[in-house]
Amino acid sequence: MIRQAFRTSFAVMRDQWVTLLLILGFTYWPLGFLKAYLMDSAYEPYELLSSLSATRFWAQFILIIPDAAILYVGLNHIAGEPAGFGESLGYGFLNYGRMWITRFFNYLSWLTLLLLVVPGVYGLTRWSLSEITVVSDRTIGVGALHRSWQMTRGRVGQIFFALCIGGGTYAVLWGAITALYIRDFEVNWWAIDGLCFMGTSVLNMAWLLYLCGIYAQLEKP
After folding, report:
1. Total Cβ atoms within 10 A of residue 2
2. Domain range holding 49?
3. Residue 129: in which H helix or E strand, if any?
4. What is the rounded distance in angstroms from the CA atom of residue 100 to the CA atom of residue 85?
5. How far apart (Å, rounded) are the C-alpha atoms in residues 208 and 219?
6. What domain count does the chain have?
7. Using N-to-C axis directions, what is the helix angle for 85-94 and 96-113, rounded to 10°?
8. Cβ distance 113 to 48 under 8 Å?
9. What tens digit of pLDDT does each residue of 126-179 get?
């Protein structure tokens, strides 16, 4: 599962790089620099709690649209029906409400389950594909969580291991990129923050496509 998920994500990035680059270039990157500039104007660089709160707000309300667009590109490529930039971004806009509600329920479930370590790990694994089902099966909220729960039945250990490998790779690369964030550069802080956001947005795209690869294998009869 892990090897195939990586292969799928790389195949999508190789074949759909123009569309994915346009999504990043017209949504993630300008929004990232705007966020960095606004945060630098409002907070001191090391006010960590304020920075994290603003980042969570940004991810919750703004970046849902390009996230849905990337998932749409990945799933359509797997189905053999490549999607263009306008089509994928339009899908992200049209499904903003369903994605927002599902992500809200996801956050609630994470906060609840993290209080219980073992049940929490199990539940987060079972619900890991909920946002993909919003794009693929047009589910919403609790329905998306239920659909993910059904898909992962009987394969929790395998999926958990795949998520650990993919998540570990993401974490190492994310740490390397964000290490720039805490260095004392003699340039505008918001510019460094924006550049770091560009790097982490590429990692986020790769992670979403990796999840698409896992989803595609579970969908096989």
Report:
1. 16
2. 2-219
3. none
4. 21
5. 16
6. 1
7. 60
8. no
9. 888 888 898 888 888 888 889 988 988 888 888 888 888 887 887 787 777 666
